[in-house]
Amino acid sequence: MIGLGFGEVIGAPLFGWVQDKYGNIVASWVCLILSSLAIATGIWFTAMEEFYFSIAFVMCFMMGFQDGATQVFAQAICGFQFHNQITPFSVFQLVQNVASLFLYIGVGYLKTNEIW
């Protein structure tokens, strides 16, 4: 999980610079590419037969990097695109938390081949 923290700390300011320098359209494409890379590294890590610390670190780093970038992008859109600042941030937090709730409920129903 240290990789996740490193990814967040490096990804957020770097992506903020990308968004400031190149604009929202390029930033949205960068977010899409980073999310695809993070998902690909997660699938790669899951498909491995053995545990490798280096691959786990890369996967956590990529997940943190894309999360930092996506959070900066979403917060900037909520902060600069709307006149009223309370409503967009409130809706963003509500949607994020409700989606997390349903994701955790769905994960709770997953079954594995192993008995814990």
Tell me what the structure shows.
There is one protein chain. This protein has 116 residues and is mainly α. It has one domain (2-83). Helix content is 83%, strand content 0%. It has helices at residues 2-22, 24-47, 53-80, 86-108. Helix 1 packs antiparallel against helix 2 and helix 1 (2-22) packs parallel to helix 3 (53-80). The radius of gyration is 17 Å and the shape is globular. 17% of the residues are buried. The mean pLDDT is 86.
**CA-CA gap between termini:** 22 Å
Percent helix among the residues?
Answer: over 70%
* Helix-strand pattern: HHHH
> How many individual domains?
1
Q: Tell me about the biggest sheet? A: none
- Cα Rg: 17 Å
Shape: globular
Number of helices: 4
- The structure class reads mainly alpha
- The number of strands is 0
Q: Taking all residues together, what is the mean pLDDT?
A: 86
Strand content: under 5%
The low-pLDDT segments are none
Quick structural gist:
By secondary structure, this protein is an all-alpha fold.
Topology, element by element:
Elements: H1 2-22, H2 24-47, H3 53-80, H4 86-108
Helix pairs in contact: 1-2, 1-3, 2-3
Keywords:
116 residues, mainly alpha, 4 helices, globular
